[in-house]
Every structure is written in structure tokens, then in C-alpha cells.
Amino acid sequence: MKTLDQKIIFPIMGEWLNQKNSLLLDFSNKNADLLKLDLQSTQNFNDYVFGFLEQKEKKYGHGGYLENRMIYQRSTHFQQGESRCMHLGVDVWCEAFHPLYAPLDAKVHSFADNNNFGDYGPTIILEHDLNEDKFYTLYGHLSRSSLKNLAIGDKIKKGQKFSELGPFPENGDWPPHLHLQLISEMKDLKGDFPGVCAPSELEQFKLLCPDPNVFIIRDN
Questions:
Q1: Is pTM, for the whole model, over 0.85?
Q2: At 131, is the pLDDT very low, low, confident or very high (cuts 50, 70, 90)?
Q3: Is residue 125 one of the residues assigned to a domain?
């Protein structure tokens, strides 16, 4: 897919993330705090994330594109065969029910409630066609109400609110956050797409899933 000009994008969170309102969070094994944390307890995990943001006086936490993450050890969903630990999207951690806005004109490609512990929970995939360049954006960990009255093919205008972040446990049982993923080809999948891959798969998935931070962060 072609390089996107950020000037034509509406910020998905309704505002751009920057150094004043957000903080980069580390969920790799380099973060010693995670080694002390009971990640099986979503409440404990939630208290850690939002306690840290409150301490730093930030509205949002963000990060994770291509990060090797230890937090997926909390769920057997990521441990079948070769362990999947490489994160293919970017996360924005903020309070539940925060509205999300379409970054570009779109139509609903597909949606589903991926209802496993540690999975996406309610998920919407939008299809974009920008000057005959077709690509997709995936939004995971939404509220169940985001899927109500939704239909495949629905048109969504740039800047239109189309969903909101979900609380746990309905969001896949995670501290509230958006998993945003940019996808160049859906491979006939609907309502779901791998958001984490095994290290041996990383090179092929990097081609399918470019860096989505262009939809989230702008410091000027």
C-alpha cells in the first residue's frame, strides 16, 4: 500500500496523541514491573496501567508496534504451537467508552465478537479505498454495543464516530484500550485478523501490517 499523508487523516481518538497527553508504555520483558505483576488478574493489570498513567498525569498510553511482548503469556490463546508474542498493531490505553472516529471515508468490511480470554473481544474492520489503493483498519477491544445495528457494507464518513472502547471483561478481558492494526490484504478473513505473530512469521506479517501510528500520533 502507498504511504499515507497524515494531513488527510482524522485522528481516531478524536485528538492527536502527543508528548503532552500521552506516554509510551513498554510491555516487553524489559519492563521489570511486569515480572512482579499477576497478569492473570485483569483488575491487577488494569490498576497497574491506569495507576501509572495517573502518576504521570497522562490521558493516554500508547505503543507496541512490533514489540516482543511478555503480556501474552497470560492467555493460552497465544500459546498454541510456536508462542505468538510479536505485536502487529499499536495500542492506545485509555478509559472505557472513549469514542473512536473513522480516520478516512470507509465501509464496514466485517465485524465479530472474538470472545476468548485475551482475544480482541468486539472487533470492527473498516475498508478504505484511497485513490484506488485499498487497505483495511482493524479496531479491537470495543464495547459490545459498538456492534449493534452494524451491517457489512455500511458507509462511514471520515470523522464520524463509529464505535467506542469496551470495559473488561467484554473487551477480551484486557484493561481498556484500542488495538489498531493497518492491514494491506485481508486473506479472506472476516471479523478477525492475527494481531500477534510468532517471531518466525514476523517478516511476512510486517509486509501485511504496516506501522499504524500515522493514525494516532502527531507531535506538531
A1: yes
A2: confident
A3: yes
Q: How far is CA 6 from the centre of its chain?
A: 19
Residue 44: phi, psi to the nearest 5?
A: -65, -40
**Torsion sign (Cα): 101, 103, 105, 110:** negative
* Residue of 12, 19, 149, 29 lying closest to 86 (CA atoms): 29
Beta strands 60-63 and 22-24: pairing type? parallel
For 16-55, how does the pLDDT look when each residue is reduced to its tens digit (9 = 90+)?
A: 999 999 999 999 888 889 888 888 899 999 999 999 999 9
CA distances from 158 to 20, 56, 106, 186, 189 (A): 25, 32, 7, 21, 24
- Residues 7-19 have pLDDT tens digits of 999 999 999 999 9
CATH number assigned to the domain comprising residue 46: 2.70.70.10
Nearest CA to 137 out of 155, 147, 123, 151 is that of: 123
What's the grid cell of residue 143? 464495547
Whether pLDDT at 79 is above 60: no
Could you count the other beta carbons within 10 Å of the beta carbon of residue 151? Answer: 7
User: Side chain identity at 220, as an amino acid letter?
Assistant: N
Paired residues of 156 in beta bridges: 106
Question: Does any domain span residue 56?
Answer: yes
Domain with 173, as residue range(s), is 18-215
CB 49 within 8 A of CB 175: yes
Q: How many CB atoms lie within 10 A of CB 89?
A: 25
